[in-house]
């Protein structure tokens, strides 16, 4: 399944993200694998990018419906889907537009909730797309404390969102997940770059939440 018309265009981000995704640290790659471990049934992936997650889906997954609205990234994801170990159905709808008649067993969000305009609204929509008991798996940028938190706020108020696909680094993502009605099952923070690194996205949040 591939939607007919792309709905988002960001030329600069579409040039930069494939380079970033192709050079992820071993720590980020391991977190991606852990985020998808033990999934089964029908899965919705939000913001597939170039399909970085696709090779990591376990064979217990019946189908992945993956959304990527950026036209150039969508084309790269389509190529990745062709060699994925599980069936991948692609759509270029945004998460706010997406609807589906069959509920999902799980939703996967990887480095995407930082870029949506209203995280709680998006998460409430994802909540509605899940079956009762379905899981939200998330690997996301998260607001840091102290000096790095101040760096994040500065980045978010200046050039970072403009050039990097509306990415906001200083968001309380877990609070947004709870506010949307999810029950958080597990959650931890991980440093994926040295603590002295000046990058505002060095700390990631990995977790699992459930629709009650």
From TrEMBL:
It comes from the Bacteria. GO terms for molecular function: methyltransferase activity. The keyword Methyltransferase applies. Keywords: Methyltransferase, Transferase. The keyword Transferase applies. GO terms for biological process: methylation. This is Phosphatidylethanolamine N-methyltransferase. It comes from Mycobacterium sherrisii.
């Amino acid at each position: 399944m591939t939607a007919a018309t792309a709905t988002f265009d960001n030329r600069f981000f579409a040039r930069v993200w494939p380079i970033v995704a192709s050079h992820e640290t071993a720590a980020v790659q391991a977190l991606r694998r852990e985020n998808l471990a033990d999934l089964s049934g029908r899965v919705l992936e939000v913001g597939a990018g170039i399909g970085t997650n696709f090779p990591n889906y376990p064979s217990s997954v019946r189908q992945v419906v993956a959304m990527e609205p950026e036209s150039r990234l969508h084309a790269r994801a389509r190529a990745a889907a062709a060699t994925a170990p599980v069936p991948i159905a692609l759509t270029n709808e945004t998460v706010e537009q997406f609807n589906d008649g069959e509920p999902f067993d799980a939703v996967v969000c990887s480095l995407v909730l930082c870029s949506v305009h209203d995280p709680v609204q998006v998460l409430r929509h994802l909540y509605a797309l899940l079956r009762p008991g379905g899981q939200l798996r998330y690997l996301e940028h998260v607001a840091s404390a102290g000096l790095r938190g101040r760096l994040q706020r500065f980045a978010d108020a200046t050039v970072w969102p403009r050039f990097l696909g509306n990415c906001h680094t200083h968001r309380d993502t877990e609070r947004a997940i709870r506010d949307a009605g999810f029950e958080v099952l597990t959650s931890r923070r991980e440093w994926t770059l040295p603590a002295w690194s000046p990058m505002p996205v060095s700390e990631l949040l990995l977790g699992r939440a459930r629709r009650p």
